[in-house]
Amino acid sequence: MNNAERKVLDDFIGQAVNCEIVSNLELSDEEKRLLNQLNQFAVMQVEDDAEVLRDPRKIFYKSGEELKKGLVALSLAVALTKNFSRKVYTKEFFEDNIRVERNKNGNMIVNFGAMGREVLDGVLSENLVFEWMLYSDNKGRGLMGLADYKGIYLDDDINFRRGGSQVYEFARFQRKCYRHFREKTQHQKDDMQDAFRRVFAEAAAKQLTEQIDPVEFTAKLFSSADPAKEIANMLEKLGKQSDFLQIEHKK
After folding, report:
1. Contacts of 201 (CB under 8 A, 6+ apart)
2. What was the pLDDT predicted at 190?
3. Which whole number is the average pLDDT over 181-210?
4. C-alpha closest to that of 128 among 148, 150, 157
């Protein structure tokens, strides 16, 4: 490519990157920023495409396709993570509803069709958008790069079947990671609660013991006709603090 051809391509790249993006759904400022970021990434992905190099005008069509693919992948990942109906919110549903086109003024029109705000919520989030770019970057390491970033060992931590289209693989991996980290967090929470119960129960028992004269209490037990009643009377005198002894914890 000579200098003149490069200048033409650079001009088209500038137009594709700096275009105004209009959505049929109301977006927050953060969602607008991330949508623009996704568009810039889509342009970067296709700037070396063979068809674009032959005809720089195709960068608009090619980058639009790339942007749509990203939005479909993000939407499917969120649908799987939120446990939306798999019969309704399929890859085909998002492909049919998400439309990315350019009008005659050069603006990018993104139409989400029948998705609705409740389905779009979470799709344009910073972490998810970044992870899609990390995963799908045609100069990157794909799934391995994303797994390393998330601190996941594919063979050891999660049993993940690789393969399929980028959209499917990314969405399925996000679902696997979501379940993995949720279970890991729950285990950590359970361990913390168990530790707290043990410490609390031991502290409560110690506190009660310190309020009892063991010699006097033992004498009462041996002299009493009803030791169980004697213990009950002692606990009743201690009042609310006796409830501490009822704390249960896992062995």
Report:
1. 244, 245, 247, 249
2. 45
3. 54
4. 150
Instruction: State the Cα–Cα distance between residues 195 and 61, nearest whole angstrom.
Output: 58
Sorted by sequence, the CB contacts under 8 Å of residue 197 that are 6+ apart come out as 247, 248, 249, 250
One-letter amino acid identity for 30?
Answer: E
Which backbone phi and psi does 129 adopt, to 5 degrees?
-60, -45
Statement: residue 188 has pLDDT above 50: no
Residue that has been written with the tokens 């050891």 in this structure? 156
State both tokens at 92: 């085909």
Q: What is the 3-state secondary structure (H, E, C) of the chain?
A: CCHHHHHHHHHHHHHHHCCCEEECCCCCHHHHHHHHHHHHHHHHHHCCCHHHHHCHHHHHHHHHHHHHHHHHHHHHHHHHHCCCCCCCCCHHHHHHHCEEEECCCCCEEEECCCCCHHHHCCCCCHHHHHHHHHHHCCCCCHHHHHHHHHCCCCCCCCCCCCCCCHHHHHHHHHHHHHHHHHHHHHHHHHHHHHHHHHHHHHHHHHHHHHCCCHHHHHHHHHHCCCHHHHHHHHHHHHHHHHHHHHCCCCC
What is the pTM for the complete model shown?
A: 0.72
The conformational region for residue 77 under phi > 0 = left, psi -120 to 50 = alpha, else beta, is: alpha
Question: The tokens 């639009």 sit on which residue?
Answer: 64
Give CA–CA dist 21/5, Å, rounded: 27
pLDDT band at 212 (very low <50, low <70, confident <90, very high): low
Which has more confidence, 4 or 45?
45
